[in-house]
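Case study.
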Amino acid sequence: MATTTTPRRAARPVRKDTGPPPHSPSTTRRRRRAVALLYVLPALLPYTLFAVLPALHTAYLSLFDWDGVTLPSFIGLDNYRRVATDPQLRAAAWHAGALIVFFSVLPIAIGLVSAALVARRSGRRGTSLIRTLLFLPQVVPLVAVAVIWRWVYAENGTLNQALRAIGLGRLTDSWLGSFTWALPAVGLVGTWVVAGLCMVLFLSGTQRIDQEIYEAARMDGAGPVREFWSITVPLLRPEMAVALSITVIAALSSFDLIYITTGGGPGNSTVVPGILIYRLAFGGGAVGLASALAVVLTLVISVAVVLINHLARERS
Amino acid sequence: MSHVPAPPSRRSFLAAAAGSSLLVACGSSLTPGAESTDAASASPVSTAVPTGKITLVVADADDTTMTPGLLAAFREKYPNVTFKRQYTGWDDYLKSINTTMSADSAPDIAQFVSGMNNLVKGRLLLDVGGYGKAYGWSRRFPGLDQITFSADGRTAGTGALYGVPGGLSFEGVYCNKAKVRKLGLAVPPATLAELEALFAKAKAAGETALVAGNLDGGLNHPFNVLLSVHLKPEDREAWAFGRKGAKITGPEAVTAATTLKRWVDQGYVTPKVNGTSDNDATAAFARGEGVFRISGNWAAAAVDKGLGEDAGLFNMPPITKGGPLRTTGAGVYYCVSSKSKNAAAAAAFLDFCATRQASAVTAKAGFMAPDAGAMPQQSGLLGDVRTGWQGIVKDSGLQPFIQNASTPTMPDTLTTQLQLLAGGKAGVEKFLAALQADFDQFHS
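After joint prediction, the assembly is written out as follows.
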C-alpha cells in the first residue's frame, strides 16, 4: 500500500504549481506516470548502466571475431554457428543438465522433507539451531565452499579418511580426479549448498498453511506421510516454483564451484558452459565466440525460468 | 662437434611464464578493440635516472621475494623513485593483465607473460630498443631476442625489444637424499634410462618414485622436460613459439609422451595423479613423501624448508651419456607500458636488474640471475640449484614451456589432454594429435 500512496501524495504539489487552467484527466495521468518514472529512476539507472547495457554489448560483441585487444572483424552469425556445432560445447550442455539434478531436484527433495520435519517440531528447543545449521552453507562464500570441499575430496581428505575409519577403505577414490566421480562429487557440493536455501523457503511456506487443514486431516486419520503428500507438498507449489527457478539458474550458470574444484577436469568431464565462456574470453582470445555462448546460455536460462513459472501458475 | 645441432641460443632463456590472456577491454565507444595509436616506440632516450619525485606503478604476479626485493633495492639507490606495487595471483594476472595494460591508468612496469605479446599489435607495450642500445643490454642480459617481437606480436626473435628478464627459472629433478641413501640409489643418473631404472627400484621398494599432481595439469613439468630431452631443439622451439607448420606429432614427441605414459602405467607416478594439485604434490614431497619430483627452482624454497639437508636437485639427464643438458624453463620478465609517463625511470629499473646488487636479491628469491657469475655461493639444495643452472647455461639448454606461447588455448588444452592421458582415456597418438589440432586451429 505504501508504495502506491507515496507517488500520489508527492504528485500533488506538482499539480498545484502548474496554475489555473484545469487539466484533462489524461494529461494528469500522463504526468503522474512521468512522476512515477522519476521514482523508479534511481533503481533503473544503475540497472540499465550495469546490467542492461553490458548485456546488449555482449550481444553486439558476439557478432565479431575479436581477440580482446586488437581491432575486431564483423562476422555476423558465424559464432552462433560454431556454438551450435562444437562437440565440446555439447558436452558442456550435458553436464549442465546433469547439474540440474544436483542443484535442483535433490535440494528441493531434501528441502521439502527437512522443512516438513522441522515444521512439525516447531516451537520445540533446538529447532532454530537446526534451521541455522542447514542454512549455513548459503552464508559461506562459494569460493570458500569450493576450497573446503577440495580438501574433503582429496586423496587423503576427510571423506576418504572417514571411509577408511569405518572399514570401507577399498571404496576410497581421488574423487575430483576421477572421470566417473568428479561430476557427481561437484554436484553434491551444490546440493549441500542449495538444500538449506530450499528448506528455509519451504519452511516459510509451511507457516502460511492454515494449521486447521492439518488438524482436519489428522482428525480424518492422516499420518505424517499422508500429511506431507496431501497437504504440505501441494500447498507449497508457489515456493517450489521459486526454488526451482533459483536452483535451475544456479545449475545452468554454475562456474565458481567448478572453477575452483576441478577447473573442468579431469579431461573435459566437468566442463560446463560457464567454464567454457571464461576459457574462451579470458584465456583463448575468442571474445566474440564467448559472447555468443553467453547470449545462448542467457536465452536458455530465461526460457527455462519462464517455463517453470508458467507451469507453476497453470497447475495452481 | 661441428655437426652438433645449433644450440637453442640465448633466445631459449626467455620463454616467459605460463598461460595467455585476453580480456574484454570495454572502451568508452561501442566498437571494441584498441585503437592503434601512433608509434609506441621509445621517445627521447636517456640513461640518466630522472631526479624529481617519481611514482612508478608495477603490476606483477611474482609470489617470491624477487620483485619486491628488486623494487626495494632500486629505491635504496634512487630514493626519489617510489613504487606502487599491484600484486595479483598468477591465474588472475594471466586473465586480467591485458585489460589492465589497455586501460588509461596502465601500470608503468608489468611482469611480462606470454599472451601479452598481443599487446604488441595494439601498441600498448613500449619498444625499449632505444634504451637497450643506450644501456648496452644485449651484453648484460641473456636471451633478449625472446622478448623481441614482430609487429603483429606473433613471432618471437625478430622485431623490436619489449623488456628484460629480472630472474630466470628452470626445471630439474628434486630428490629426497635420505630415501636415496636408504634405497641405495646412485644419483645423479647419467642418462634418462638410468633415471627410469631408479624409478623402478624406488617403486619396487614400495615408494612413490615420482611425486606429481595433475588436478591442474602438473604433469606438464615432466612432459615438457621429456620433450626437451627428446626433441631437436629447433623443432621444440618452433612448436613452443607457434611457428607456422611446426609439428609435435613426430617420432621423438611420440617417444617423450610414451615415456610419460609408461611412468604413469608402471606406477612410478603418484597414484590417482589426476586428483592431486601440483602445489599439493610439492607439499607432499617436502613432507617426505616419495623419492623424486620434477619441478622448477621455484619450488626450491618449499622443498628446502621441508626436507632441509635431505633435499637435493640434479639436472634432467640426457639420452646418451655426456650429451648436452636440456631442460624447460621460463623467467620473470619486466616490460614497460607505452602509456607510461616515466619511461626513463622504468628503463632505469630494467637496467638495474642486471646489476650485482640485483643478482643477490634474485638469487635469494630462488631465481637464477641474468648475471650468472654474480650469483652468491650457497650450500645445500640452493647450492645444487646454482650448480644445475650453471650446467644448463653452459650447454645453452634452457627451452620454453610448450604451452606458453604456442597458442592462447594451449594451457587449457594441455591440462585436459594430460588428464586424459594419465587417466587412460587417451592413447599417446590421440594425445599428441589433440595438441596439434589446437596448434593448427590457431595457426591455420
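Observations recorded in class. Residues 25-61 of chain A form the longest helix (37 residues). Chain A has 14 helices and two strands. We will return to this complex in the next lecture.
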